[in-house]
Amino acid sequence: MQDQTAEKPGLLARLLAGQTAALARAISIVERDGPTVSALLKAIQPHLGRAIVVGFTGPPGAGKSTLVNAFIGEMRGRGRTVAVAAVDPSSPITGGAVLGDRIRMAEHTMDAGVFIRSLASRGHLGGLSASAARVADLMDAAGFDVIVLETVGAGQSEVEMAEMADVRIVISAPGLGDDVQAIKAGILEIADILVVNKSDLPLAKRTVGQLQAMLALRAPGDWKVPVLATNAVDRTGLCELADAVDHRAATRKMKGPRDALGGRTRRLLAQSVAKYAEHRVLNDTCATIDAVVSDLQQAGIGLDDAITKVLMRLCESQDNG
Amino acid sequence: MNDVLLAPARVLVTKIGLDGHDRGSRIIAAYLRDAGMEVIYTNPWQAIDAVVALALEEDVDVIGISSLATDHLLVPKLMVALDAAGLGHVRVVVGGIVPDEDEANLLAAGVSKVFHPGAVREDIVTEVERLAIAASNERPLD
Amino acid sequence: MNKIAKPVMSTGKGTHQAAFDEWQQNYHALIGEDKPVRNRSGIKVEPLYWPSDDPDGAYNEKLGFPGADPMTRGIYPTMHRGRTWSQRQLIGLGRPVDFNGRIKKILASGASALSIIPCNSVYRGIDCDEVEPEILGTCGTIINTEEDMDICLADIPIDEISIGLNDPSPFTMLAQMLVVAEKRGIDWKKVTGTSNQSDYISHFVANHMFYRLSLQGARRVQLDTAAYLAEHVPNWNAFSIVGQHMQQAGATPAQAMGLTLSTAIQYAEDCKARGMDPEKFLERFTFFFDISISFFEEVAKFRAGRRIWNRLVSDRFGVTNPRAKRFKFHAQTSGCDLTRQQPLNNIARVTIQAMAGILGGLQSMHTDGYDEVLSTPTEDSAKVAVSTQNILKHEAHLCDVIDPLGGSYYVESLTDAMEVEILNVIAEIDAEGGMFKAVESGFVQEMIGASALEFQDQVDSGEQIVVGVNAFKEDEDASARPFLKRPSQVHMKQQVEQLKKIKAARDPALLNNALQELRQAARSEDINVFAAEIDAVRAGATLGEIVKVLRDELGFGQPLVVA
């Protein structure tokens, strides 16, 4: 076993060469947050920014996975390779999860140009998993042309996906009750493309009309959000969807450096800082932090001041240490 | 060597061959989920190659094959294919109706455990967790 | 009629209130902790049942006499005292010639009808030359061609025996059998039997092995087939609505009955929408259930189901023809209750299950081999299963009295309670827009999954005792278990070679033309698919070829997996 690993190229080289096994293993390393994560992520940084990252979100029952499946097929038909990170919720009580999104994508299992990874949200809020940004980076580094992030789709505002994706697709289906209402309340703002899936259902036209009416009320921007009707089963509207994705990705790239890539990096940084601070505050034995806690408890100090004091203390000790 | 898992165990629960009864695989998926594991669940009728591809992409620790008819007879082929794909560390368990003479063959082919009707939740969960730890320890670091 | 005694249940409770109170006091003094008991359907079971306050008139309304509405006590005036149930043993092993040899023996030992179980590869719609050889012929007979069917039925009078085919949509085995009958000069009008696995909805929900075509495609083929058979093979039951798969997948007995009746409602509505006459097509509806070991619950399930169906067909479909109101059913003892541990105990279990089915008033029965949980049943265990039925019929005298449990305070009360539960399930499915929609959305699958998990938890916790599994365990010598005979790999190779020969001997132009016609039929709404299928069999098309064309045109049957 040891000899074999010595002979074969390192994980990084194999990842950059697009080897499935290396990508799968790299994702596991990131998911398990092992000691080598930091070096791995640093090493792939120069290779990022080539892929288009497409986010799919929408309420349960809208047919997200089935639409992603059809979208993979459409992109493969155009000769593009596709990697998918599909997120399902973890149980808040046991931490376990049944990851079933890829059941709907079974037809692509044996296609070497498609990589699908199921991720559990592991208590992370915001529709993705804590590692999703890094998983997308790994897929980018492995050379996939299109990366799909499929969110949990609890119907809430899924802002995180908005920050990570180049193109944000919000899916709804006719007859989902007040789904249009839900979209209005939360995620309409983040959509680059609105999709009404299951277009064969009788209420589809009306839903498209409602969404268009809602969009008309918004201040005009430099991107006009299209409302597309799709049927993932017979693939109606998939060509239009893929065109719209490419078009949107191109307009965003023309605006200059990859703003979504910047968003991904920024979010990664924010998460890591928060996690670091949390660990230190909870675990350090340190007179300063103990004093801040005590002051806060006895209302001798405001929360704002407390945060400042703690951050300063963390910086000091980092310098010393 | 770790004797605990650093992250939830990842288990592929699937069916190969021709049969499509899924009461068993669904119950097992729920057991493992409720024990804090991450279960990748599939349609029945997976080809051997597809199971290997799934195990590779999802980087699972354990594969659970549910068999009610005689589909377990294909498992030795799966074991060979997993080895060839560099997934020798992945543990395979089989659950369902497996005659005794077949069980011996499966174990000889590298299957870690065969669960028969009447196996209880606690035993299944404990064994899968133990196997996940073993697989995790043997998984190549890169 | 007037000579039949006044049923005891109609005596008022009031007359013996004081005695009841005294019993209750004594009961509570002695019992200690009285744990609440619930049956598998969740119905609370009391320690004692006594004459209820029902007015006398309720007898006719709720029970009636055998053969008369609401048929709670049976669908025929004579029931088992006249004609007993058919013993329909499902068997199948290896090659068609093996099946033929075994079925002749089983018919000689007293079985009065025959059933054919094909190999799992047949269920999946694949010819044997495309299957991994290890799993070929291990669970049933390989029937890919009309020639295979001819060998299965060699020396068997197709027109004199009722035949059950485990033959999911698109019903290739039926097409093959009709062509065999045609070649033997047998009038199709004399062919009787049932398409036992015609219920594609139950396959979509709970038995994916049988699920070949998409929901919509299977619906189309089923209606075409029913219309064709009504005209050409009038004594064939095109519809067997199956509760067995759902109960085996975990539905409670009440849920299984409710979901099955909802499925039947769906099929009846579909037939009606196609312009068929309910007074006629409902005559040919048959049902197929699982019998669990929950003895009284199963008896009550069947009695309640019979009463509900009888009323339902007149309420919903305006049917007046008594033959169309009969709830005819086949039942099979449940393999789910059998244990791998101490397998001979399963003979006792099967006996109890069979009794519940008989006392529930079934028309036809299969009893499981005691080794089914170990492997595909062996010949010895199949013999014991047939004998079990003969013993119950002839030695235990279960057929002497019609509905012998009728009038039991408990059984009548439980029948009423099961009826309420079953009607609740039907109402839930109605609210989902009918069975087709309720399975499309996964509603039914989730209901069944939750029940399965709940039952398993009861077994795991020891709340439900299973002898040899969570109680009364013994160290066992595995070598004492029955030895399994697998089909010989040599025979399987021969079968594959045989298929290749048959395929090579066909007229390719004739075959391609017939398959093209089948494709056209599937594409066009106006051409009967089943008629085109029979033509394809006549031209030599195999199972795999027919199923492939229909999957291409009507969609592959992809189950909705609810994890």
Automatic annotation (TrEMBL), chain A:
Q: Where is the AAA+ ATPase domain?
A: 50-201
The UniProt entry's sequence similarity note says:
Belongs to the SIMIBI class G3E GTPase family. ArgK/MeaB subfamily.
InterPro entries the UniProt entry points to: AAA+_ATPase (IPR003593), GTPase/Isobutyryl-CoA_mutase (IPR052040), GTPase_ArgK (IPR005129), P-loop_NTPase (IPR027417)
SMART domains in alphabetical order = AAA
Q: Which UniProt keywords apply?
A: Chaperone, GTP-binding, Hydrolase, Nucleotide-binding
Its name, as the record gives it, is AAA+ ATPase domain-containing protein
Q: Which Pfam family would be a valid example here?
A: MeaB
**What are the protein's GO molecular function terms?**
GTP binding; GTPase activity
TrEMBL record, chain B:
Species this protein is from: marine sediment metagenome
A Pfam family cross-referenced in the UniProt record is B12-binding
User: Under what name is this protein listed?
Assistant: B12-binding domain-containing protein
UniProt keyword terms in alphabetical order: Cobalamin, Cobalt, Isomerase, Metal-binding
| Domain (B12-binding): residue spans on this chain | 8-138
Q: Which PROSITE patterns match?
A: B12_BINDING
Starting at the broadest rank, the lineage of the source organism is: unclassified sequences, metagenomes, ecological metagenomes
UniProt cofactor(s): adenosylcob(III)alamin
Task: State any single GO MF term.
Answer: isomerase activity
Where is the signal peptide, in residue numbers? none
